[in-house]
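Working notes for the structural subgroup meeting. M.R. asked for a predicted model of this chain before we commit to crystallization trials. I am recording the input and output together here so anyone reviewing the notebook later can reproduce the run.

Input as submitted:
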Amino acid sequence: MVWAKRKTAAAVLMAASLVVCDGRTAEDKRDYCGWADKAGRTLAAELPRRDLLEWSDELATGIPTADGPTLCLAISVFQRAGQPERISKVIPRLKDLLKAERTDGAVIYWLCPSGHYEQVREWLDAFPQDIYSTGEWKAFLNWFEKKEGAKAIESWLCDKAAHERSTRSAIGGWYDYSRWSQLYWERLQANGKLQSHVATLAEKIRKEPTRTDAVVEYLGARSMLDDTAKKTMPIGWLADVVRIEHALDNWGLGRMLADEKEYEGAIRLFDKSLACPVADYDRQNFNRVSMCSMFVHPDGVEPILRQWTRGALAQACFQAGKLDRAQKLVEELTGKKDGTLADLGPFLFAGQVQAASGQRVVEARIKKAEEEQKGSVRYWLNRANYYIGRKEFEQAEQAYQSALKLPPDGHRFEVVRDYGWFLFNRERYGEADKLYRAEIARIGLNDPNGSNDFWFHQLERMDGKGGVRFSWDEPLIWQWLSEAKKRNFGQSEQFWLGWAAEKTTKTPEGWAAFEKKARALAADPCSPPLRYCLGTILQGHGQVQEGLRMVVEAYDQWPLNSYPNEIHVGKTVLGAYVGQSDWKNAEKILERLQNKPGFSGLEDSLGGIAVAAAKAGAPDDAMRLWRRKANLDLTKQDGLEALAAAGLAERLRDYYAGLAKRAPDNAAIAAALKKLEVK
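Returned structure, recorded in token form:
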């Protein structure tokens, strides 16, 4: 069984509380997220005891007077009832109430993949910014072009792109171009029109050099050309033609020119950026175009923008051969106004510049600061980086070793990491191995910061190099896993146990050795997450019953705040029972899970249990479970054909035929009956 670390990206829907403001609630204030949250709670409470088709009819009659939460509820019910055409009646009413261009985008997450393209277009015409909420555009655009022609779709996309560009004109956020613009350019490219479009945009800039939005569009469209076409359309001329007034835009355009090795033009733009005052425009747009992973408060934008601009200018000067100016800039960047050494700065780059210029001003400052800062780990790290830039590696190593002799502070991890990489890159694997192991011994195996996981990965990548060995039976790993039972057997621990298992499955002898170690580790007393992890590994290796036993034991004793969470583990147990056609135990697990916050997929679970019941010879229970599933969502039909194959085809046909009489034009019901046709 292959294990890998996973980062799960949770989609968060902001639930707005109904706070009274000037006598108005959040609903009165057109809070779509608040509406959707209230609708979701109503759906969860009411759907299990409501007839889905009746509820859909009831909501459809009330659309003209419905409030925001009711409209959001209606959309969900219509989708589940397989009646997307009713959403067409909701859209104008919702747009009128919302008075905004964007919802949370959840609606077209299922409209587009389900092929309900008429409603997709209607929704996007009403809420065009929801373009960022889903994919599956190729099929939708193909449908559009087939229906109305290439010219119509190009015009539609162009209009949408032009509208959104009016709100996104800052230069530099090349990754943040309007999705509408990207779709438009892709369409032009597919039809062989993109290159001429880029040329037209270039002429537009020459005629109106102050149009920042035209520059953004030009750069974005050009970025989608192939390399051959790009060479015929260089961008260095922009530095001489464009007349933009904001510090942020000049910096952003300068970066783009520097990326394409247009260093002379980049230098002029960076200089212009430094000459421009930092205005509200720059502060408001900085976080969108900066590519910085952290949010910068508007009040803190100016010093960061200036520092980054000077750094980019120094790089461009260095690449352009203007070493004297690059030298002056790195002196500023690595020193404070009083001439002392900066705490942070581009010391690696400073070393590169001074190696080329032959000057040692920064080095002199570093040495001068030694007496005062020799007790600082950060100082020695900066010094090591400087000498690496100069390629004076002996001096760099002395700096690393000086840092390691000091009492550890917040930069200790950085020093050990960088020194280890320094040794690795010089193929001194044995020394790097010794360094990492010494750090593990120093911090102990129960390090609360979790750095051991990182050190293990560094040791693993050296396995087999220069006599270093770090294999599945590494004592450090097993001791660390054993210690984990005393804290929390979390994601990292599960990864390494799975890693060890994967390393041993190639031979029976290797697997037997791993299983012996793992079972000893999981002997009582131990943590439920550990037993769960080992149980899933055993299941993946063919020991289904034993693995299931361990997983069930773990689930019955599951701790709070452990990884993975109880719902994930419960679904694993449920799936194992379904796989064995043990539908009774599976239904018990589902009853335990279904009311827990965060649980989803009730319909899918019911379908799987229904199929298991049919295979186990319990047709009445299978139909009971399937009817419950269908009433939650008629469009989800996974398992229908398997259920029919298990002997329930006739009963299923009768069930769906009865639904068809109640909703004769329902496409979801028709699709189910088609699947159940006698062949």
